[in-house]
Design brief:
The chain is mostly helical and 161 residues long. It is built from 5 helices and no strands. The protein has helices spanning 3-24, 26-45, 49-80, 86-116, 130-154. Helix 1 packs across helix 2. The longest helix is centred in the middle third of the chain and has 32 residues, at 49-80. It is globular and about 55 Å long.
Length: 161
């Protein structure tokens, strides 16, 4: 197998991990829904590109933290055979706490972006802040790819390649 195909295969595994977590974890679905609202806000209001990037970064960090939390929970369950042990509970609680802290920070960023762009004007058909719209659309396509992968997996298929 060539190094390029191994490299591409790594992306496929990563996408499958996101899709699987989206399919099985309720909190991941909540985070993805919140990210969709953030993307919709950015597409309609069209803040400056820096604010859009800040919003998308905050969403990405929350989703990444949820992925790490899911991995910690799965590894802990595997290591303890599902038995309740104090160290395992500490690991799970700490990972969940990290997600909570990051999510709270993301809410703070969303509040900042929302107030920094006040008064809100719909710029759906405007060329104002076009680069912010492009960033938003790229992020939306990545979001959609993950959702489609999760839906495909829930129907017994594989995550998209």
């Amino acid at each position: 197998m060539s190094s390029v195909s191994r490299f591409v295969r790594g992306f496929l595994y990563a996408g499958r991990g996101v899709a699987r977590t989206l399919k099985t974890e309720r909190n991941m679905r909540v985070h993805f829904t919140a990210a969709l609202f953030v993307l919709a806000y950015n597409a309609v209001v069209r803040p400056r590109a820096a604010l859009v990037a800040l919003d998308i970064f905050a969403c990405a960090v929350v989703i990444a933290a949820e992925l790490v939390n899911t991995a910690v929970e799965a590894a802990t369950d595997l290591a303890t055979d599902g038995q309740r042990a104090y160290p395992a509970e500490v690991a799970k609680d700490a990972a969940a706490g990290a997600v909570l802290v990051v999510a709270a920070g993301a809410v703070g960023i969303a509040l900042y972006v929302g107030t920094a762009t006040w008064p809100w004007r719909m710029r759906v058909f405007s060329v104002d802040h076009f680069s912010g719209l492009v960033i938003t659309l790229v992020a939306f396509l990545l979001w959609l790819w993950c959702v489609v992968g999760a839906l495909a997996m829930s129907r017994g298929g594989q995550a998209p390649a």
